[in-house]
Amino acid sequence: MIYTYKYKSPLGRILLAADEVGITGLWFEGQKYFGNTLPDKHIPQETEILTEAKKWLDVYFSGEEPKFTPPLHPDGSTFRQAVWKILLQIPYGQTITYGEIARKMAELKNVSRMSAQAVGGAVGHNEISIIIPCHRVIGTNGSLTGYAGGIDRKLSLLELEHADMSYLFVPKKGTAL
């Protein structure tokens, strides 16, 4: 069974979802792919796992780095799971490029190259945003690209983490990337 809880964050309402194993989803209301893995039958009820995720978010949105991770149970292919595992290794307040993740994936798979576009697809379909920090992934040229919650939120999350953004290309509203 999937349980849900609505969390009020400084960047908008967040829907959390969990099963008996761990967090299965974390979405900003209205974001791209909002709740797309959420089954029709779910129970709006706080559970121990959802309470732990709330505590994590409280610490995170206070501007501190959480020193724990709630249990996670993302659903995805082996490839996506491997990409998400790399995302979990990105230090708080730091960024990594899609190309760097592609190189790490190539090493893991013992192949000469891995497609940065394939990595981008896996990053973009991360259903547990913020906790699995896809907002820390940037374009090779330092551009803030591809965040399902919106570029403004991605920028706000990086600012909250005091990430060095001096080298980032932040598009103006209405500018295509």
TrEMBL record:
This is Methylated-DNA--protein-cysteine methyltransferase. The active site is at 134 (nucleophile). Keywords: Cytoplasm, DNA damage, DNA repair, Methyltransferase, Transferase. Involved in the cellular defense against the biological effects of O6-methylguanine (O6-MeG) and O4-methylthymine (O4-MeT) in DNA. Repairs the methylated nucleobase in DNA by stoichiometrically transferring the methyl group to a cysteine residue in the enzyme. This is a suicide reaction: the enzyme is irreversibly inactivated. It is an enzyme of class 2 (transferase). Belongs to the MGMT family. Residues 79-162 form the Methylated-DNA-[protein]-cysteine S-methyltransferase DNA binding domain. It is found in: Cytoplasm. It comes from Blautia faecis. This enzyme catalyzes only one turnover and therefore is not strictly catalytic. According to one definition, an enzyme is a biocatalyst that acts repeatedly and over many reaction cycles.
